[in-house]
Amino acid sequence: MTQARNPKPGSANSEGKRFPLWMMLIGLLLAGLLAVLGLWLKQTRQEGLEVGTDIPDFGITTFSGEHYQISELAGRVILLNFWSSWCASCDEEGAILEEVWQEVKDSGDTIFLGVNYVDTEKDSIAFLEKYGITFPNGPDMGSRISRIFKVEAVPETYIIGRDGTLTAVKIGPFQSADEIRAILKLAD
Amino acid sequence: MKRILLLTTLLLFLIPLTPGFAQNETPVSDDEVNRLASELYCPVCENIPLEVCPTKACAQWRELIREKLALGWSDNEIKTYFAAQYGDQVLALPPRRGLNWAIYLLPPLFVAGGIIIVIRIMRKSKKPGFSQPLSVENPRRVTPEDYINLVEKDLKGSE
Amino acid sequence: MIGGVGYGGLVIALVASLTAVITSIYGARTHSAAVLESARRAAKVTFPLLTISILALLYLLVSGHFEYSYVYQTTDLEMPFYLKLAALWGGQEGSLLFWCWLLAGFSFLVVIRRWKSEQDLLPWVIAVTSFTLLFFLILVVFFENPFLRYFITTDGEVTRALFQPMMTAQANPTNGAGLNPLLRHFGMVFHPPALYLGFTGFVIPFAYAVAALISGHTDDQWLKLTRRWSLAAWLFLSLGLVLGSRWAYDVLGWGGYWGWDPVEISALMPWLTGTAYLHSAVTQEKRGLFKHWTIALIILTFCLVIFGTFLTRSGLLSSVHAFSQSAIGPAFFVFIIIMFTGSLGLLLYRWSALRSGEQINSFFSRESAFLFNNLLFIAILLICLTGVLFPIFSELLTDRKVTVGPPFYESAAGPLFALLLLLMGIVPLTMWGVSTAKNLGRQLWRPALVALAAPLAALASGVQKWIALLAVWLVFFAVFATLWDTSRAVSLRASSHQESAWKAFVAQVRHYRRRYGGYLIHIGVSLMALGIIGIEFFQTTTQGMIAVNETLNLSGYTFTYQKLEVFDTTDGRNRALATVVISKGDLLLKTVHPGRDYYYASQQSVTLPGVRSTLADDLYVILVDWQPITSEGATLKIFRNPLINWLWIGSGILVLGTLVALWPAGERKKIMLPRGIDQ
Fold first, then answer.
1. Is residue A149 part of a domain?
2. For the whole model, what pTM was predicted?
3. Within this chain, do residues A15 and A93 fall inside the same structural domain, yes or no?
4. Measuring CA to CA, which of A112, C57, C74, C517 is 20 to 30 A from C452?
């Protein structure tokens, strides 16, 4: 660019004046602003959580009042499913998730946790009853859990392995019970 | 022992007489819902007020507001509830804590900065003995004072 | 084929602008006329080349070549002709190409004129404009190409490419997806181009300012040369903002005209500094003051244009207005760094050269008022920047999302706008150079007193909010002070030239176009402020579900739901049209037809408000489709917006005033008259 090819300011300035303090301050603010923008740009371009990342500890309290803490579930495979009652595609996978849950719940080895994403209690409980869902489901208070997993839309499902890292991600509804079983196998 | 039993039975009979937290008999109007909804933002879509958001989810949230208003919750209680449920982005202004204080403190700081700049520039210009050249743009701007000044200047010059 | 031609135009234009940048810099450093001439030619040729590209894209849009992905995404068979043309700027790729065309057009206009008089400045002007054009062309050619076509691979996947890849077949969709229903409105024809003309128009004064800094010609020359450019760019930017709010008012159905949405603010910020720049330029020309301010403001204006475009197009902000996520973010970021640091660095380099030795001599002088003016606009700008950037900052640092909504802007910037209104009233009565409080007070008390009639009248009619009364007084003060000054000047001239008042008025305006154009603009702005005061302080609203023949009441008006028609239109919409009768007491005022269009293809609804407009207020009725719309029950939402039409009237006067200020004067004639002959 033209300016970049010019001699740098300070050196060519024949009057030898130093720059006043407020100019330095403005320069610093500008640099700070650009740094913030650059960082933010980088962040928004990250698509989502990458497989293999360590999942930080968080807790969720279900609609019936039970509390689950991720750190306490270490050693088990966790299927974390983000859903909402107002999301049309969540209807598709409600029933099949429950079906697979019935198969795995007794082993004590795998646990399904449903995270209710930005929803109302009344409508969520109605949704759960509609599909007869029995695995633990709770609201995402303050949308904090969604922020950890960078959830952009629902439904999204995250499989957390026994070692507490992210093993698999499914964006969108599961199409069949087999698909769920397959993704669970990945964690074994 | 018998007395205690009597007292408790009596008290139990009194319970139905206590004023219950009865539900509002009149249904909450759309206007009341909108009043609150216009001060809240859609939790999912950014920067869209809850009052105008057309999605099904927003309709559910407006119904939630209606429910809570019917239960007698105050505006502030409902807003706090929403913020706790969905996050601070549903509020029109960041809650006053931590970093958010910047939003409240910066505007007065800017104004103060402006005032300081004005004071400094005015001080710089108040140099003693600085003659004031009259730059008049067109005749009608000149006031009697200016003519007097000119005459006095001329008079001084001729002394 | 046509797409190939369009793309070819783009690529050659890119090469040409690159050549222009290199040769102009080289020519300026070596003072070689031959090299400079080739720079000039390279800059000139970009415009016809890009015109070819634009025409190619327009042809594709209008003739429904849906195999082109841009045509597919922004048009469909049922769209009316004018919307197909407007689809040129209906999507990211097309609107970026439009930007390039405008930039090329402006540099063309600059390069073909004024070549003889400013040899030192022009090479750098070409360098800056060509560099900007180069950047946008790089964006279009490499990231957001409007001439990509759909191809189907052997696996059945759809891919986009410029030239047919191996093992694929040409896709041939029979219809497109069409423009977003919200955009299918006359506003789409005028709002984006006006805004873009304003944004890109500022590249010329910016380029001249940078050229002045590089070449060392820091006198007023660059300012005088670009005076009309800046004013014209400002006019289009103002027009774009007003058209945007009018469109939002008409279509979005929430009875509002400005939402303090980050994208709206991104367009407002360059307007703020642009307005300050116009005023600062006047002070520089008249008194030689504020040279630093003036250059800093035009640099800031253009940087804010780029910054605002970056925020809107990179997908960083999500709002109704924003384009979707895109790969151009990082490229824009690099460009911003270059522009910001380059231009500001230059300003610092020439800081001392800009010193004028002049000073503000009196607190009550006109220069002082202009200083306050600059400071107020900068303060409002800082508030807007804080509001837009804070959520980003907060999310980065605390990982929590927050919203900075209208209450912030209204309470922080509102008082500052009120102070600007006050200044608009005071400034016509100040003098350059010297003034005292007594002088100024003597000029001011009459308009100030007369203006009191307005809030008193409001008080008498029941208005109690003191803020509203104060605001109303400020508006009328500004208008009366301006008219007062004008009438004094006219009567003075009439008596000294023995002319009739009308002749004196016309002669005054003709001789001092800029000043009276400016006064007219101020009056326009004051009237806009009146409209804003009306709707912001006194809007009333109600909503309710009623059956046919039932009524809703608002502020003394009665709204009767008379009937409902629901039908399918010929172009893929389901329309629900209600008939609502508005009456006041026994008097029937108007029948309006609020409606709702549901677009089958995109499954989106658009509200069609039914409005009754008068100077006193707007009665704005919409059909809300949160619940199904039937004759048994339709939800109507009604707004009463007092004084809102003064917002549109005021903006019309603003445009008129700018045209007066822009009008080419017989200024050349004036200069050539020997002194002594009356002017």
1. yes
2. 0.88
3. no
4. C517
